[in-house]
Amino acid sequence: xxxxxxxxxxxxxxxxxxxxxxxxxxxxxxxxxxxxxxxxxxxxxxxxxxxxxxxxxxxxxxxxxxxxxxxxxxxxxxxxxxxxxxxxxxxxxxxxxxxxxxxxxxxxxxxxxxxxxxxxxxxxxxxxxxxxxxxxxxxxxxxxxxxxxxxxxxxxxxxxxxxxxxxxxxxxxxxxxxxxxxxxxxxxxxxxxxxxxxxxxxxxxxxxx
Length: 209
Ligand SMILES: *[C@@H]1O[C@H](CO)[C@@H](O)[C@H](O)[C@H]1NC(C)=O
What we know:
Blueprint: H1 2-9, H2 17-43, H3 45-49, H4 54-81, H5 92-121, H6 146-162, H7 165-208
Helix pairs in contact: 2-4, 2-7, 5-6, 6-7
2-acetamido-2-deoxy-beta-D-glucopyranose (NAG) is lined by residues 138, 141-142.
Function: Catalyzes the second two steps of the methylation pathway of phosphatidylcholine biosynthesis, the SAM-dependent methylation of phosphatidylmonomethylethanolamine (PMME) to phosphatidyldimethylethanolamine (PDME) and of PDME to phosphatidylcholine (PC).
Subcellular location: Endoplasmic reticulum membrane; Mitochondrion membrane
Transmembrane segments: 54-75, 96-116
């Protein structure tokens, strides 16, 4: 891995400002949604902003996360444009693999949005909009975090499509940032659902008495 990075870095132009801008955008997005979602959970900031309507608050968050994602993807493509290509990556086989990765990544992202719905995808749990039960259907039978791994595959596919080692480097950043986000998000959402289970159990006991 270290050897590969050293090899690849010879083909990365670190003097391009657009590279740093894309790297910053990749790191910023998960920090943004985690910060805002936790503010919502603790202080109901977005629900208040939406006049007390939690669902509308979640839609606001969804719109902002979605827009930031589009902007980040744009900055990523702009960064790749000003980077050198690697001759070994400029082959038909690599293009074919790139297309496959991009397609697989998008299937994971879109099908997980389909399975979770809008509020399920965009942190509805933090607004008190909980799923009835854990989704285990496709793509959740393939991976626990299809959104994140799908997005990573799309970044990698794009990097290989353009034959840019800088894109592979940024894809590694995407993966690391998502893995950190998962370590942060998974225990928190698990806690939200545990709390509901306890409340449900309590309500059941209350009914019996
Ligand atoms: C996941 O579910 C899909 C659709 O139901 C199915 O086609 C696929 O084989 C399953 N994959 C795994 C790994 O179980």
